[in-house]
Amino acid sequence: MAERGFRASVDDAGNAVGEIGDGPRHVVLLGHIDTVPGEFPVRVEDGELVGRGAVDAKGPLAAFVAAASTKIDGLRVTVVGAVEEESPTSKGARFRATLPAPDWCVIGEPSGWDAATIGYKGRLGARITLTRAVRHGAAPGSTIAEEALTLWQSIRDASARYTANETGFARLDCRLEGIQTGATDGLSERAELRIGYRIPPGMTTRQLSDDLVRLCQEGQAEARLALEPQAVEEPVRTSRATPLARAFVTAIAAAGGEATFKVKSGTSDMNILAPAWGCPMVAYGPGDSKYDHTPIERLALSDYQRAITVLQRVLEQAVRA
Fold this sequence. Notes:
Elements: E1 7-10, E2 16-20, E3 25-32, E4 43-45, E5 48-50, H1 54-68, E6 75-82, H2 91-96, E7 104-108, E8 115-120, E9 122-133, H3 144-162, E10 173-183, E11 188-199, H4 205-218, E12 224-233, E13 236-237, H5 243-254, E14 260-264, H6 270-277, E15 281-284, E16 298-300, H7 301-318
Parallel strand pairs: 3-6, 3-7, 7-15, 8-14
Antiparallel strand pairs: 1-2, 2-6, 4-5, 5-16, 8-13, 9-11, 9-12, 10-11
Helix pairs in contact: 1-7, 5-7
């Protein structure tokens, strides 16, 4: 960014930050700079860039930098390469959320060059530990692993009742993300469940957490239970009627596409920044999210170029909004 004329720096959270232009209007383009683990050879293959992070989300972040490189009179653009989006801490976005809100914000996530994302489910992760005195393997009764699985069945059945008549984005998803069992010190044995919720708008992490505590208390058999909430992010949905969303419709049409708006079952930095800033916000970026986190992550370079054109036109509209 410094080489392109941005005022570039690293903020107190470790985010890469570049500012360009001056004026009364301020737009933040925030994409995350971290990736999930796993490396495979980076290459261009049949017009596609293949490599970890090509879609999620270095392609969108690179498109932000390219689109903002040309100054626009009356507009200040801040590009943020945020840290720790792929972890529950979300350190980069949480730090930026403490700063004054911009007029518009675009989150860098793959939506496809001709679409924008306006909603993400929330997330609640919890670790439940069951502990009891060790038993002989031939002793009657349930094993500690069976007790844990019985508890998981109760949690899953309860979650299904919340949104029994809903599908897709409106449905509460609950998954068993992991289970571990085994003796600890020869005197006690333990089992650990890792539960993950994906929460639709209209529900809160507090509501689910309270209900999970109650379920654990009701389902307690012989084992002692300990519940530890982990990842906590509220669901978010923004409006497709904001000046920013309309700017994307216009810009995508000018580039030869027909804009659509998406909602997603995952989370993004929008879950943190939308409630904190309250400004018009969408997520946008080239790439197909079905490749997120996969060993064949790839980005069509033609879509990357189209996304840059769309973003440039959106920024041009920002000064007139």
